[in-house]
Amino acid sequence: VGRQAHRTVVDLEASILAKNDERAARNRAWLAGRETLAINLMSAPGAGKTTLLERTIHDLAKEQQLFVIEGDQATANDGERIRDAGAPVVQVNTGTGCHLDAEMVARGLNELKPPARSLVIIENVGNLVCPALFDLGETAKVAILSVTEGDDKPIKYPHMFRAAALILINKIDLLPHVDFSVEKAVGRAREVNPGVEVMTLSARTGEGLAAWYGWLAARRAATGATMGL
Ligand code: MG
Ligand code: ZN
């Protein structure tokens, strides 16, 4: 593209992002007013977001109801899995879009109507690129990296791993069968995001999930504390 056309594209993107940020700020204020924790769960396709959610809904059923906004380009398959697991869910299909934006989440929250002090999990569209750019108004971003991917993903997709408050390395039950170095992956994650918390787990076998549940509980407590609970 020519210089002028390129400039127009850049301006358009800047204006889309500015509009999104404004909507995200309103989502954040709405969530804060309801003392509700919202986690934006992001990964490449197939890293295990939905499986982790199913397991989390099941394991926390007695202590904590989860509310889910489920993002996919097409189908209600994952939304149905979440409903079957026992959580209220709103499925958002983005069509040609490859990420959720703050407006979609606002509509999702409006439909879900989580009561005060809820835990809302937003499963983003599987994509390591633009979900990192779109603030949804969430309390925290969590990135999943599975061991069937490359252990260099954090440096290939630095924006995603830099934005994450927590990185989950999933499918560790498969480690004996793949060339994935947890040590290298953690090192690379901290190259782009020094001090980031990293947990290893298997949503399939349940190994390591206690730490994830502990993290969620601590974040919920902190959300209440900042609201003066
Ligand atoms: Mg999914
Ligand atoms: Zn996108």
Tags for this entry?
binds magnesium ion; binds zinc ion; single chain; 8 helices; 229 residues; alpha/beta; seven-stranded parallel β-sheet
- Shape, principal axes of CA atoms: globular
Helix-strand makeup class: alpha/beta
Strand order of the largest sheet: 3-2-4-1-5-6-7
Query: Which whole number gives the mean pLDDT?
Result: 95
Q: What ligands can be seen in this structure?
A: magnesium ion, zinc ion
Give a count of the beta strands, DSSP E runs of length 2 or more: 7
Percentage beta strand: 15-25%
Radius of gyration of CA atoms, rounded to a whole number: 18 Å
What can be said about the biggest beta sheet? Answer: 7 strands, parallel
Kindly state the percentage of residues in helix.
40-55%
- Give the N-terminus to C-terminus distance in angstroms: 54 Å
Q: Count of helices?
A: 8
Which regions are unreliable across 5 or more consecutive residues at pLDDT < 50? Answer: none
What's the SSE pattern?
HEHEHEHEEHHEHEH
Characterise this structure.
The mean pLDDT is 95. Strand 6, helix 7 (182-192) and strand 7 (197-200) form a beta-alpha-beta unit. Helix content is 44%, strand content 17%. The protein has 229 residues and is an alpha/beta fold. Bound molecules: magnesium ion (MG) and zinc ion. Residues 97-99, 127, 130 line the site of zinc ion (ZN).
